[in-house]
Design brief:
The protein is mostly beta strands and about 400 residues long. Helix content is about 10%, strand content about 35%.
Length: about 400
C-alpha cells in the first residue's frame, strides 16, 4: 500500500475532484494542510483542482505501472486556475508541472497583442483588475495552446497528446515518463509557488514496502543497537540509513529502510548493524514518529553517538543509552501524548495519534502547539524539539547503544 499526499500550501480551502481513489468523491484540503489517500498498486486516477466548480489543473497518476514504476504527469488540458505540481516523495527529479503556472500565464497574457486577446476572450477569465484567474480547456482552443506553450512547454501536459491516431506534441508525450519505482506521491497546490517546501535535513515520509526483517539476537556481540520494546504490545521497528551525511546535516532516507525488527511486548534484542550506519530507528514506517538518531562509528573517535529527536513528531517516549559502562543516557520515559492539547496532535495514516512535527516537512509547517507543549513536558535538554543545540550527545566507546521505545 502506498499513499497520495495532497498538500494545500495556499491560505484558503481548496476543493479537489478525485478519480480512482477516495471512492471517487471530492475532497477539500484545509489551508497549509495535507490530506492522505490510500493508493493501491496498479491503481490509476487523477487529482483535479476545482475553481468555482470548474475543472482546472490535474495530477494524473498510475501506481506501480509498467516495469513496476509509477507514471505521473501534470495536465492543464482541461483548464487552470491555480498552481499544481506532482512528484514521487523524496524524488524531486520526478516533479512535473509549472509551480508558477498562473503567474507565468499572466505575464504572457499581458504581453499578448490585442488581436490574440480578442480571440481568447471567451476562454480566458479575468478579475476586475484585469488579472487572469482561470482559463478554460486548452484542448478546445488552439490559440490558447500556443499562448501557454510560450512558458509551460515541457513542464506540463498542454495538448491532447498522442491519442486516436494523432502523434500529439513531443513535449506533452514526454510528460508521461516513468518515475523511480513504486513510491508515495506528493501533490502540491498553491496560488503562489507550488514547489514543495524544502524539508529540514531530517524531514521524511517513508513508504510501506517489503523490508528485510532482521533476526534479532538476545546476545550482544559487536556493533549495533540493543533494542527494547517497553510497550504492552508487539511493535515493528525500522532502521533507516541516511542517503548522505555532512557537517551537522544529513539526507534522510525516504524510501529504503535497511532492515526491520519485530519485538513482542516488553521484549529486548540485539540488532547488528554495519559500522558505516548513520541514521535512525523508529516505530513503524509512518510519520509523525519519535526518532532515535545515531551513528555506529564516528569518524573522529570511532564511538557510537546518538540522541532522541521529536522534530518529525512523537508517537511515544524513547531513551538512548551507552552500553560501555559510562552510564550516559538521554531521552524521556513518560507518556506525553495523553495530556497533549488537541492542537498539537494529528492522526497518522494508520489512525493512531501522535504529536505533530515541530520542524515542518512537505506535509505541513511547524506545529506551534506541539513545540510549546514539548518544551514544557520534555525540554530541549532531553530531545531535539526544534533543532539547534542543547541536547547532550550520548556516546558509547564500544560502538553499541541501547534504545528503548515506550
Amino acid at each position: 500500500m502506498h499513499y497520495i499526499n495532497i498538500h494545500n500550501k495556499s491560505g484558503h480551502d481548496q476543493e479537489f475532484e478525485v478519480h480512482g481513489w477516495n471512492g471517487n468523491k471530492n475532497l477539500t484540503v484545509k489551508p497549509n494542510a495535507t490530506t492522505v489517500l490510500h493508493a493501491e498498486d496498479k491503481s490509476s486516477g487523477a487529482i483535479i483542482a476545482l475553481h468555482a466548480g470548474h475543472e482546472g489543473e490535474q495530477a494524473e497518476i498510475t501506481k506501480d505501472g509498467f516495469g513496476g514504476n509509477d507514471f505521473i504527469d501534470l495536465s492543464n488540458i482541461v483548464g487552470a486556475g491555480g498552481n499544481l505540481t506532482v512528484q514521487q516523495v523524496g524524488e524531486p527529479g520526478t516533479r512535473k508541472g509549472d509551480p508558477l503556472f498562473m503567474q507565468h500565464l499572466n505575464e504572457a497574457w499581458h504581453k499578448a497583442d490585442g488581436k490574440l486577446k480578442e480571440s481568447l476572450k471567451s476562454c480566458v477569465h479575468l478579475d476586475k483588475s484585469g488579472k487572469v484567474v482561470r482559463i478554460d480547456a486548452i484542448k478546445d482552443h488552439p490559440d490558447l495552446d500556443k499562448l501557454v506553450r510560450t512558458f509551460a512547454d515541457g513542464k506540463t501536459y498542454i495538448g491532447v497528446g498522442a491519442w486516436g491516431g494523432s502523434p500529439g506534441d513531443k513535449s506533452d508525450n514526454d510528460q508521461s515518463s516513468a518515475g523511480h519505482g513504486d513510491k508515495d506521491i506528493l501533490v502540491t497546490y498553491n496560488d503562489g509557488d507550488a514547489t514543495p517546501d524544502n524539508p529540514p535535513h531530517l524531514a521524511h515520509h517513508p513508504v510501506e514496502k517489503l523490508v528485510p526483517q532482521t533476526h534479532a539476537s538476545d546476545a550482544h556481540s559487536g556493533p549495533g543497537i540493543i533494542l527494547s520494546n517497553k510497550s504492552a504490545k508487539e511493535e515493528q521497528y525500522f532502521f533507516y540509513d541516511n542517503y548522505w551525511n555532512g557537517n551537522g546535516t544529513a539526507g534522510a532516507n525516504f524510501d529504503h529502510p535497511l532492515k526491520s525488527v519485530k519485538l513482542g511486548a516488553r521484549a529486548t534484542a540485539f540488532v547488528s548493524l554495519p559500522e558505516s550506519f548513520k541514521g535512525r530507528v523508529q516505530r513503524g514506517t509512518h510519520l509523525p514518529a519519535t526518532w532515535a538518531e545515531f551513528q555506529i562509528s564516528a569518524s573522529n573517535d570511532h564511538a557510537a553517538h546518538g540522541d532522541i529527536s521529536l522534530e518529525q513528531g512523537c508517537d511515544g517516549a524513547a531513551t538512548i543509552s551507552a552500553t560501555d559502562g559510562s552510564k550516559r543516557s538521554n531521552g524521556f520515559t513518560h507518556d506525553i501524548l495523553k495530556d497533549a492539547p488537541a492542537a498539537a496532535k494529528v492522526k497518522k495514516p494508520d489512525g493512531t495519534e501522535a504529536l505533530a512535527t515541530t520542524m515542518g516537512n512537505w506535509m505541513s509547517g511547524p506545529n506551534k502547539a506541539a513545540i510549546e507543549y514539548e518544551r514544557k513536558v520534555v525540554g530541549q535538554d532531553k530531545a531535539y524539539i526544534t533543532g539547534g543545540t542543547g541536547v547532550p550527545d550520548v556516546a558509547s566507546r564500544n560502538k553499541c547503544l541501547a534504545v528503548d521505545f515506550y
